[in-house]
Design brief:
Blueprint: E1 22-25, E2 30-39, H1 46-63, E3 67-77, H2 84-99, E4 105-112, E5 117-127, E6 142-145, H3 151-159, H4 165-175, H5 180-186, E7 193-196, H6 201-212, E8 216-220, H7 230-235, H8 241-250, E9 254-256, H9 262-268, E10 277-281, H10 283-296, E11 302-308, E12 315-318
Parallel strand pairs: 3-4, 8-12, 9-12
Antiparallel strand pairs: 1-2, 2-5, 3-5, 6-10, 6-11, 7-10, 8-11
C-alpha cells in the first residue's frame, strides 16, 4: 500500500498533484479527505440524475481508499421555469444513493440558475498509512480497470435520440453503480496508486497517473472493457465535444499502434461520468485483487496494461 506521511510534516495536500481528494491530517493516525463534484443533467429522469451525480461525487473518496462520512448538497435550479417536484426528485435520488452506503446528507446550499445542476461535497476519513494517491504507481505494476468505458458517447447518442433503451439502461447502470465494493477490495491488497475515470477519459486520467509517477503506461486496446455497441456509435461519428477536446489535448502524449482507428482513439478519450477505478497493483497481487473485485462487482475488472520505465511518450497503446 502506498503510504503518505502527512502528520509529521504538518502538511495538507490539495490540488498540487491533481489528486481525487484534498487530504487534511487530524492526528498521527487519520486524515480527513474531501471532494466536491456537480454537473448538469446527463439523463432526462431527474431521480436517476440525482443518483448518478451522487455516485460520481462519492467516487473520489473511494478512489483514495477512504470511507465517506457525510455529504452536503450543491444545487442550482431554475425555480421559475421548472416544477419543484423535479428538484425534489433530484434530491431524493441523491439521498437514496447515499443511503446505500450509510452516508447521511446533512444539508447543503442552493441557488437559482437557468440550468439545473446537482452534486455533493463529500467528507471522508482514512488511515494515514492507507492513503492511495494517483501519482505513486510503481514500475511493473499491472493497470486494472473496474468498469467499462463509453458512457459519454452513449449519453450523446441519447440526446440525439440515436440510442436504444437497452443501451441507455446499460450506461445508466454503469454510472449508477458505486465504487464502494471495488474500494473495499482494494484495501485488502497492496495497491500502489489509484484514481477514478471521469471527465478526462481513460487516457487523460492514465496520463496524470503515469506522469505523476514518473513512468509510462503500456496498454492494450483489446483488453479494455467497452460497453457493447459503443464502437458502432463512435464509428458513426457520435462523439461528444468533450471527448474530442480530451483527444486533442492528450494525443501528443500517446503512441498509438497503427491499427488503432480514429474512432477507437476517441473511445479511449471519452469523457466519462461516474466511471470505474483505475488501479496500479503489483503483479504478485493483481490477479487475486481482480478475483475479489469480480466476486462482488456487477462488472468484470480487467488488467489493461502495465507501468513501464519512462519513455518519450506517457502512454503506449497497442492493439
Amino acid at each position: 500500500m502506498s503510504k503518505l506521511n502527512l502528520f509529521n510534516t504538518n502538511k495538507s495536500v490539495g490540488f498540487e498533484t491533481f489528486d481525487d481528494c484534498s487530504i487534511y491530517p487530524i492526528n498521527n493516525k487519520q486524515s480527513i479527505i474531501q471532494s466536491v463534484d456537480f454537473f448538469t443533467p446527463i439523463v432526462d429522469d431527474p431521480y436517476l440524475f440525482g443518483q448518478i451525480a451522487a455516485t460520481n461525487a462519492l467516487s473520489d473518496i473511494y478512489a483514495m481508499g477512504g470511507k465517506p462520512l457525510f455529504a452536503l448538497n450543491i444545487v442550482a435550479f431554475p425555480t421559475e421555469k421548472l416544477d419543484l417536484t423535479i428538484l425534489s426528485d433530484i434530491l431524493n435520488g441523491g439521498i437514496e444513493k447515499c443511503k446505500e452506503v450509510n452516508v447521511p446528507i446533512l444539508g447543503g446550499h442552493s441557488i437559482k440558475d437557468d440550468v439545473p445542476k446537482y452534486g455533493l461535497a463529500v467528507t471522508g476519513i482514512i488511515n494515514n498509512n492507507k492513503i492511495i494517491k494517483n501519482n505513486t504507481a510503481q514500475y511493473n505494476d499491472d493497470i486494472i480497470l473496474t468498469k467499462p468505458i463509453g458512457t459519454g458517447i452513449i449519453t450523446t447518442a441519447i440526446k440525439k435520440k440515436l440510442c436504444s433503451n437497452s443501451l441507455a439502461n446499460k450506461a445508466i447502470t454503469v454510472m449508477n453503480t458505486l465504487n464502494d465494493k471495488s474500494s473495499e477490495c482494494m484495501n485488502l491488497f497492496q495497491v500502489n496508486s489509484c484514481t477514478d475515470i471521469t471527465g478526462y477519459g481513460l487516457l487523460g486520467h492514465l496520463n496524470e497517473m503515469s506522469k505523476g509517477s514518473n513512468l509510462s503506461a503500456e496498454i492494450s486496446y483489446n483488453a479494455i472493457p467497452v460497453i457493447n455497441d459503443v464502437d458502432k456509435l463512435a464509428l458513426n461519428k457520435i462523439i461528444p465535444g468533450g471527448t474530442k477536446n480530451n483527444y486533442d489535448f492528450i494525443k501528443k502524449n500517446i503512441k498509438f499502434h497503427k491499427n488503432i482507428s480514429q474512432h477507437r482513439k476517441f473511445i479511449l478519450s471519452d469523457a466519462q461520468t461516474s466511471g470505474g477505478l483505475l488501479i496500479a497493483c503489483p503483479k504478485s497481487e493483481s490477479k487475486q485483487l481482480i478475483k475479489k473485485i469480480n466476486e462482488k462487482s456487477s462488472f468484470k475488472a480487467m488488467i489493461i496494461g502495465q507501468f513501464i520505465n519512462k519513455t518519450n511518450k506517457q502512454i503506449i497503446c497497442n492493439e
